[in-house]
Inverse folding.
């Protein structure tokens, strides 16, 4: 049985894709990934499968084809952080994987604002809730991947409602792309602002 390649593409811009990842993609017969991820790599002469709400079908496809095809799953960021790896580990032994991490979005974002993250909480609000106030008592900085429900306004409101309106919020959208946007503002000022981007990363700091 061939190993399933699972590779991280970095924060988004193809310039940040590691050389080892490029080599694996070049040798692959089949590429599986989200629409934007597939658009970031060379898919010429390869079968591509876009991930939507079809994980069960993709799982069956991999099981049927992995013995005689080189299959690579391309994911954004770092495979070890909020990625498809968690799902795949429920269905395959770890020995069946060849994993190559990429530069994570939190690495990129912290670097862009000139801060370290050894004292930060790293998490995601994609489809879930957690106690933000508790994390703020435990960590100096908080990095969050957000979604439409748990937006920057959702985060800013929690801060303002709990006498934390002076906290600094960094918003990062389209990170690493030409239209990258990074905004720094206090929670009390960001609450009333409207931005056009939908998906972004947030860093909360005491600065």
């Amino acid at each position: 049985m061939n190993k399933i390649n699972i590779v991280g593409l970095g924060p988004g811009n193809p310039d940040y894709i590691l050389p080892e990842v490029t080599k694996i993609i070049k040798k692959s017969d089949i590429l599986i990934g989200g629409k934007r991820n597939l658009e970031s790599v060379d898919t010429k002469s390869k079968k591509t499968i876009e991930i939507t709400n079809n994980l069960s079908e993709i799982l069956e496809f991999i099981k049927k084809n992995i013995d005689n095809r080189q299959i690579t799953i391309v994911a954004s960021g770092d495979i070890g952080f909020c990625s498809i790896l968690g799902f795949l580990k429920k269905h395959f032994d770890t020995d069946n994987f060849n994993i190559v991490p990429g530069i994570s979005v939190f690495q990129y974002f912290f670097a862009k604002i000139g801060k370290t993250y050894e004292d930060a909480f790293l998490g995601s609000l994609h489809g879930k809730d957690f106690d933000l106030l508790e994390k703020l008592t435990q960590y100096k900085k908080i990095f969050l991947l957000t979604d439409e429900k748990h937006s920057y306004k959702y985060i800013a409101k929690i801060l303002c409602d709990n006498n934390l309106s002076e906290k600094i919020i960094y918003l990062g959208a389209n990170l690493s792309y030409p239209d990258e946007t990074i905004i720094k503002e206090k929670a009390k000022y960001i609450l009333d602002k409207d931005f056009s981007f939908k998906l972004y990363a947030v860093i909360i700091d005491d600065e």
In short: The chain has two domains: 4-103, 106-205. The longest strand covers residues 168-173.
